[in-house]
């Protein structure tokens, strides 16, 4: 460890609730694009957002999906937790599966949404979502090829 590292305070995690909405009829996944004005605007991700003070993961996810998509979710089933270190934030992503919701989808933040099978056709995909694509692929007996998604990232 260098002297510089010793001098740095530990980075605080930003807690994020993320929903993997699964369509019963064909197993498609709901993916949405990040709205203008946010870091990684235009990247595709699973819908969700940051926990507010005092909120549980499920409460935050329920609130975010109303705010972003206009739908009320049923149970959010906790699935896995990952971390991703971006230049803008160190995030802890709380992934939940969601199989029931009500209401009509409305893009309330000017974003786009798409029901997708694997591998996703939309791009670029937020790198913090890769692990979920891997688990979903494994569940479905599909090969996950991270290079396919990396090749679709904008060139620096
Ligand atoms: N929603 C979502 N966020 C993800 C995914 N993968 C991933 O790394 N993230 C990261 C990106 C952001 O740093 C963070 C989510 O924060 P955000 O800025 O979208 O959350 P928010 O809607 O509460 O934003 P805000 O406008 O209130 O600040 O999690 C994903 O698949 N979905």
TrEMBL record:
Transmembrane segments: none annotated. It comes from the Bacteria. Its EC number is 3.6.1.55. Its cofactor is Mg(2+). Residues 12-138 form the Nudix hydrolase domain. It catalyses: 8-oxo-dGTP + H2O = 8-oxo-dGMP + diphosphate + H(+); 8-oxo-GTP + H2O = 8-oxo-GMP + diphosphate + H(+). SUPFAM superfamilies: Nudix. PROSITE patterns: NUDIX, NUDIX_BOX. Pfam families: NUDIX (PF00293). The keyword Metal-binding applies. This is 8-oxo-dGTP diphosphatase.
